[in-house]
Prior knowledge:
The protein is α/β, with parallel strands linked by helices.
Amino acid sequence: MADQIDVAIVGGGAAGIAAARHLASLGRSVLIIEALSRLGGRAHSVQLGGMTLDFGCGWLHSGERNPLAALAGANGWTIDRSDAAWGDQLHDLHITAAAQRDAWQAYEGFVHALATNAPQSDRASDAIPGGDRWRPFIDGLSSFINGVETDGLSARDFTSYDAAASDNNWRLPGGYGAFITSLGAGLPIALDTRVTAITEDNGVRLDTNRGTLRASAAIVTLSTTVLAQGAIRFAPSADDQLHAAAQLPLGLANKLFLKMADPDAVPPESHLLGRFDQAGTGSYYLRPLGRPIVECFVGGAEARRLEDEDATAFAIEELGGLLGADFAKALSPLAVTRWGKEPTILGSYSHALPGQADARKVLARPVSDHLIFAGEACSPQDFSTAHGAWDSGIAAARWIDRMLPP
Length: 406
């Protein structure tokens, strides 16, 4: 590693790449320090069965204002702008159309209540009437959207995201993770390198498993859960920011990919929810982008349980109950993600605990003239997204550049 650089960037996900690109464009010397053997962090595309599959983020949320959508288009990446099928239940399987309308109306009522009459507790679940038959459905949706059920979710934090989000959710057939990684091409990178301590001493000193590095400043983009568990020692302390990180833990959402022997068994771009009457269920995207696969999504407590069990068997059993035993028998496993087991990440995306929505501002606040945090958890309204991480990385880079001498 270089002996002295302008800015060390800890973490090579979307935030770290964005910060490095911005600073490099200003003529600053940078180094991305990444504990994994690859760039991208929670943006990770894998080639399997002749297809590009996104193990992490896969949707350009709020596409019309998403800076990564604009950047992908400018760089020649194909963007699929077709409507997502999430709200549909193929053939109304195992639930009537009327019951589905009731379920979705209950969810919309819940979201409206959070925005207009949020509970004093700031606990999202307190906005659901006692005994509401659709509570499991709402909790299931929250587990997919937030990585956690409503009892662990700040109403105010969720509303900040929901109010800013649009229904324009687009995809990159070439892989969202592949695109994010491509944006790091040409940047100085140290892979398989873990930072264990950052000490401010006439700039910053970073202790790593591969030696010591000195820089004028540092941007830290590690996940909130990793930060809260003390992966890096800071001197002087960054106690306020680390406490804030603990109030913004990563929820969990995992994916399973199943190969279909007979793709024509279901129409492309269709969807099924495993159950409407329990939170612990799967969301099944059938033949996404016309591919011969089922992309299964599980979140929250069920995702954590399945990290220690046979997630593939769970998904195939639910699909068999919906589409029949013959359909289930024709499925074969391709891959299962376990983001909660990845020690350098420990989850999927952040949510604020009840009463802790302001922790995002604290985490994003500079520690000193030489140190600042970035990442999706620092975004006031686009947390849990790659573009929220991207924007936070650029904001941190701009601040650091102003602090450094010309």
